[in-house]
Structures are given as structure tokens and as C-alpha cells.
Amino acid sequence: MVPEGTSDARVLAICGGIGGAKLALGLYRTLAPGRLTVAINTGDDFEHLGLHVSPDIDTVTYTLAGLNDTHRGWGLANESWGFMAALQRLGGENWFLLGDQDLATHVQRTLRLKAGETLSQVTSDLATRLGIEARLLPMSDDSVRTIVGTRDGPMAFQRYFVGEQCRPAVNEISFEGASKARVQPEVLAALADETLAAIVICPSNPYLSVDPILSVPGFRAALEAAPAPVIAISPIVGGRAIKGPTAKIMTELGLPVTVHAVAEHYRGLLDGLIIDNADAAEADALEVPVAVTGAVMDTLEDRDRLARAVLDFAASLRLRGTA
Fold it and tell me: 259: which residues sit within 8 A by CB, 6+ positions away?
């Protein structure tokens, strides 16, 4: 039985960290339990202090569990930093912050991976233990690492994003290991699921968060062939990024910071694009069906409202026969 006020539709969301997690939470709250699957970027993963850290997986997990720090945007609420303070006293690396509670996630994940479990198995179990009634899946169980090309040479993603605070100009982005990686099998099955109401590309950074997922051989082809409507939400609003370095990177790569550029980036993949009211004047010029609504998610109500708009748009695309 579907709880009152929720939808029995089933949705696959494709997302990275903070921005994507906001919409994933809206979908999670709007759909009935068990109806949401989230395929999450792991190009941000890295080894740090001997631990396997999966920033985007953890952001989505903590957000759906209601444990995230909504002010900071990442990590756990009510976090303490005794480990980092002790590490600094001992001369250890302190450029990447690991909270005391968060540390338990990384330790547990690392131990289980070393014991032979897959990242999918560990992610699923941790989500279940935190009470999440959605399937959280890494894009792949194989190692893919985002490498940012800069004037000073290539940088591992976290060194660029956290260590350098995105200051170096980007001239290239590549995904180490992607050519040999395999799409997580349940993600591949979800992409081919004829009963899905929608596949949603969340408003994550198209270049740093979504492209790593698309770089895994077979993912793009499966998305192109998906029977469900594929809908993206533009992370660009009024010529600016909702959050993070998306606009800066687009400029550095010689791209206009517009919803047109977002639509072009996803050319061949989309049945529809959702843009913010601020970009309504550009809707008619786009070559894909467009829905115009408020795409900025400052509040919990914003997340729920956008999630419902996504479901309504997907249903309308099916009725129009454009998906």
C-alpha cells in the first residue's frame, strides 16, 4: 500500500553530491518507500590516510538518512573534530577534513572493501543500517578517478576541489580507469526497466559529477536506449551555477554559461529539460521539450516541489509520446 501523499511511481536518479542529493531527497520524500534508486558518482572517491573515502555516496546517504549538516552542505550534523585536531598536533595531513562520526563510515567501508566486499554491498548495507528505504548504488564497483587538467598539470579531483578550492583554471577533465570499468549491474538493469516513471539527471555538475558516470562504458548507450523518459534539471540558473564551480569550469572550457550549453552537453540523452523561471525566455529556443519551474532548492519544500514537478513533467512527456 502506498502511503498517503506519496507517489507509487518508480524513479532512477543519477547524481553527484550536494546539489544532486537535494533533489534525491525531494524524490525520496515524494515517492513511496522503495520506489527510488540512486546511481551515484564515484569519480570523487579517493584513498586518504589509508581510508577509502566516497564523498558523493556519503553525501547522498547522510542526506536521505536526515543526518547531514544542512548549513555546511557536507558531512554529518553535530560533528566533532577531535581526530583532526589530534592529527594536526602530530603533523599529519589536515587539508581534507574528516569528522569524528564521519570517520566511522570511512573505517567501516575500508575494512569491508579490504575483506572482499564490493562498494555496492557496503553502500547498500550502510544505507539500510541508517534506515534508508531507497537503493543507493555506486555507478560502478570498479575504480574510476576524476582527473582535472590545469595549467600546472593534472590534479586528482579532491586535491583540486578541496585542497586548491577549485582555484586552478581547468583545461581538461578525464576519468582514470573508466575505460576498464563496468556499470554497476543493478544500475544497468534499472536503466532498462520499462516500469520506471522517469530517469532523472539531478542538477549536479555535468562535467565533474555526471560525466564520470557517463564515462563508464555502456552507461551512455543504456541511457540512450532507456524506455523511461530521461529528464535533466539544469544546474545553471540565470547564467550562474546554483552551487559549486560549474559556471567557472564552463567559462574556462570556453563554453557559454547558459541552459543551452547544458542542453547541448546532454544532446542525444534527454527527453526533457527542466529550467528555472529565471531562464524562461530561453525555453522556446531549446531543441528538447522544456518545463519551466523553480529549480533552486533552498528549503525542504523546494526539494519536494521540484520532485513533484519532475514526476509531472515525465508523465506529460509520456502522454505526448515524446519519451
Answer: 234, 236, 273, 275, 279, 282, 286
- A 10 A CB-CB count for 47 gives 12
φ, ψ for residue 162, nearest 5 deg = -100, -50
CB 103 within 8 A of CB 124: no
DSSP 72-139: TSSSBTT---HHHHHHHHTT---SS---HHHHHHHHHHHHHHHTT--HHHHHHHHHHHTT--SEEEES
Mean pLDDT of the residues in the chain = 95
In the prediction, which pLDDT does 318 show?
Answer: 83
Contact 270, 232 (CB under 8 A): yes
For residue 224, what are the CA distances in angstroms to 123, 200, 220, 276? 27, 13, 6, 25
**Residue 167 CB neighbours (<10 A):** 10
Hunting for cell 509520446 — which residue is that?
321
Range name among 27-36, 102-111, 234-243, 259-268 with the lowest pLDDT average: 234-243
Angle at 66 between CA 231 and CA 301, to 5 degrees: 55
CA distance 80 to 76: 9
Q: How many CB atoms lie within 10 A of CB 220?
A: 16
Amino acid at 238: G
Instruction: Report the amino acid identity of residue 154.
Output: P
Distance CA 281, CA 291 (A): 12
- Across the beta sheet with 290-293, the strand order is 135-138, 36-40, 11-15, 198-201, 230-233, 272-276, 290-293
